[in-house]
Specification:
The protein is mainly α. It folds into two domains: about 110 residues, no CATH class; about 80 residues, Arc Repressor Mutant, subunit A. Helices cover about 75% and strands about 0% of the residues.
Amino acid sequence: MSSPESSPEWIVSRSSSETNTQPLSTDQELITVAKRLWPRVQAHARKELPKWNPDDSLALATEIWEDVLVSVSKTLQRQNRSTSEIADLDAYLFGVFLHRFNRALKRERRREQTIEVVPSSHELEQLQGARDVKSAGDLERSIQVKQAIENMDAWTREVFTARLYGYSWREIAEHHGLNVATAKLRFRNALRKLADRLRRSK
């Protein structure tokens, strides 16, 4: 959470603006606890995902932690409650994080067991001629790939095409104002959701 957009201050203030409410005075306590817990969140992600690329495990932890902070902040605002009503805010926030993190891991393991996709950008790069126009045409003529491409949202299709034409993850991430790990994670999650949707439609 090194970028300003990932800081607890920005996340909590964003949740206030999205709900059209003034930031609670207790938001500062939420921000303080979030900063204190962030190293513990990162350590947990690294411990649970030892085989993952460190950037990917950090990106997943960041995404879930941001969701936790937004959710808790919005809930407190909606119910007009203060953080002082929570007996142990550290334990509460980390508990919510653990619940969501474990749920994300289960989804990821299910995806790995049931879906055959190119598991990494490195292997995509190794596909014979994956970067030339003819190969892209050949891929699109494949029924399964064509169906997947047609059902992609605009962002995922743009990233997929950029990868086929040889753009690096760094170039793609910079174009979309993301860091490399977040761009990879967002793309992988989009493919997982697409595969789930296509499987359900069969």
